[in-house]
């Protein structure tokens, strides 16, 4: 369902009685050359997104109904979307993924239709649902009915807004196989009643935002965690962040931490308890780097790291050497450059001289800092890299803020050098990108 054509196909699939509903609401959608399809296309669908249905209908109806008001257009979109979603629920034998996130239609937040949960066909369609994306301000009754049907959700992505309905707590309580729990919290009340119901089957937890009364005590029960991401602005969002310094996750491999004003001593104790199993660490530059102890703790407690995102102050070059000597399995490193952090010439010099297994280097430039290496310095780096034994093809990624003008790829001499070593096979991948690139920003 990526185009208006596919939307027209779905509308052509609607039974005549549903098309009549559209006609009664004066919703006329021209479907030239569209006969009733030979195949029941809706029955082949395994992923249903109300947001995408609304988005496609907005484009289609705007083209077909150019002279109606925004309010009527919005109403018509809701009517047609409801009938298409009804069609899906009644025709799909086994839905795998359901996305009920809101769609911003004409600058107004829309609630997706959820009355389909009462259809007899919903019990069959949703029985094997494995992935659910939704927000909390849906009726509690919807979540309760869903809890009677779906017991084997593997991935749950929640956006908690004003409150946590009891039905949502019921849905969490009956899950037997939940693996990935992704939750964004926005000033919710009674959130702890939900978090306490999380099963210990969870292996990946992503927690964003926060509110003043949330407790992290629930996390002590998640002993099977393999990936933990905590992304929030202030420590005050959690009552007992200190609980992290004593907890042990025997299977934890990936740690992503983004928090302003975080007490580094707390994180150091966490690494002391869990660092031996960690394979990836991503630390945001908001973390307080008034001292070098956290970076040295990574070197000391995390010897088997494969990927690392880190900030090294420009007067602490020796620390980067220590990290490479201690973490000899490192394959990818993101280094923050500019300002109070290392410049790229120093950073690349340490990488080429001390790393053993690095194949990917990501230079992340902060604020308005620009690439400062001269072409001759860049040439020297690649010559030295090509002389490394064993020789490793390099992926080099440069991350800038979008408003920077003089990037590495804006310099013709630099790009001639890059192209030269791509042709020689020394560079496997070269990319200049922004901070919103999901591939290189673990917090998106």
- How does the major sheet shape up? 14 strands, parallel
Q: Tell me how many strands there are.
A: 16
Tell me the span between the first and last alpha carbons.
25 Å
Helix content: 25-40%
Radius of gyration: 26 Å
The fraction of residues assigned to DSSP E strands is 15-25%
Shape: globular
Unreliable stretches covering 5 or more consecutive residues: 105-109
- What order do the SSEs take from the amino end to the carboxyl end, as H and E? HHEHHEEEHEHEHEHEEEHEHEHEHEHEHE
Arrangement of strands in the largest sheet: 1-2-5-6-7-8-9-10-11-12-13-14-15-16
Counted by DSSP, the helix tally is: 14
Roughly what is the average pLDDT, rounded to an integer?
A: 84
SS-based class:
alpha/beta
Q: Could you explain how this protein is built, in words?
A:
- The chain is of the alpha/beta class and 444 residues long.
- The protein has a domain at 1-94.
- Helix content is 34%, strand content 19%.
- It has 14 helices and 16 strands.
- The chain has helices at residues 4-13, 16-24, 50-64, 70-91, 120-125, 140-149, 166-173, 191-195, 264-274, 293-301, 317-326, 344-354, 375-386, 412-423, and strands at residues 47-49, 97-99, 103-105, 108-110, 131-135, 155-160, 180-186, 204-210, 227-232, 254-259, 280-283, 307-310, 332-337, 360-365, 394-400, 427-434.
- The strands form two sheets. Strands 1-2-5-6-7-8-9-10-11-12-13-14-15-16 form a 14-stranded parallel beta sheet. A two-stranded antiparallel ribbon has the order 3-4.
- Helix 3 (50-64) crosses helix 4 (70-91) and helix 11 (317-326) runs parallel beside helix 12 (344-354).
- The longest helix has 22 residues, at 70-91.
- The chain is globular, with a radius of gyration of 26 Å.
- The two termini are 25 Å apart.
- The model is unreliable at 105-109 (pLDDT under 50).
- This is F-box domain-containing protein.
- InterPro entries: LRR_dom_sf.
């Amino acid at each position: 369902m990526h185009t208006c054509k596919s939307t027209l196909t779905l509308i052509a699939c609607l039974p005549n009685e549903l098309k009549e509903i559209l006609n009664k609401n004066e919703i006329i959608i021209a479907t030239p050359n569209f006969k009733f399809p030979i195949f029941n296309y809706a029955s082949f669908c395994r992923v249903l997104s109300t947001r995408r249905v609304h988005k496609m209908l907005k484009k289609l109806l705007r083209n077909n109904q150019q002279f109606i008001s925004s309010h009527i257009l919005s109403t018509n979109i809701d009517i047609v979307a409801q009938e298409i979603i009804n069609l899906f629920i009644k025709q799909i034998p086994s839905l795998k993924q359901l996305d009920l996130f809101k769609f911003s239609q004409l600058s107004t937040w829309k609630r997706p239709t959820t009355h389909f949960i009462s259809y007899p066909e919903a019990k069959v369609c949703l029985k094997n649902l494995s992935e659910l994306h939704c927000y909390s301000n849906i009726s509690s009754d919807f979540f309760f009915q869903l809890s009677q049907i779906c017991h084997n959700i593997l991935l749950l992505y929640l956006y908690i807004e004003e409150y946590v309905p009891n039905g949502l707590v019921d849905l969490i309580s009956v899950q037997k196989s939940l693996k990935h729990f992704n939750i964004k919290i926005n000033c919710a009340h009674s959130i702890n009643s939900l978090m306490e119901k999380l099963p210990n089957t969870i292996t990946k937890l992503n927690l964003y935002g926060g509110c003043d009364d949330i407790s992290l005590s629930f996390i002590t029960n998640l002993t099977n965690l393999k990936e933990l991401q905590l992304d929030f602005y202030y420590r005050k969002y959690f009552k007992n962040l200190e609980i992290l310094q004593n907890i042990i996750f025997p299977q934890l491999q990936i740690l992503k931490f983004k928090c302003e004003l975080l007490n580094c001593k707390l994180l150091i104790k966490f690494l002391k308890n869990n660092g031996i199993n960690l394979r990836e660490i991503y630390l945001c530059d908001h973390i307080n780097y008034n001292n070098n102890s956290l970076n040295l703790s990574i070197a000391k407690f995390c010897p088997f790291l494969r990927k690392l995102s880190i900030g090294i102050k420009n007067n602490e070059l020796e620390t980067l050497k220590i990290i490479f000597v201690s973490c000899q399995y490192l394959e990818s490193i993101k280094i923050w450059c500019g300002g109070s952090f290392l410049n790229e010439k120093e950073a690349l010099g340490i990488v080429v001289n001390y790393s053993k297994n690095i194949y990917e280097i990501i230079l992340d430039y902060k604020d308005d800092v620009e690439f400062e290496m001269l072409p001759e310095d860049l040439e020297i780096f690649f010559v030295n890299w090509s002389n490394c034994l064993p020789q490793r093809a390099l992926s080099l990624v440069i991350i800038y803020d979008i408003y920077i003008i003089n990037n590495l790829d804006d310099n013709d001499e630099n790009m001639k050098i890059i192209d030269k070593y791509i042709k020689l096979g020394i560079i496997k991948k070269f990319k200049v990108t922004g901070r919103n690139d999901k591939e290189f920003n673990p917090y998106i």
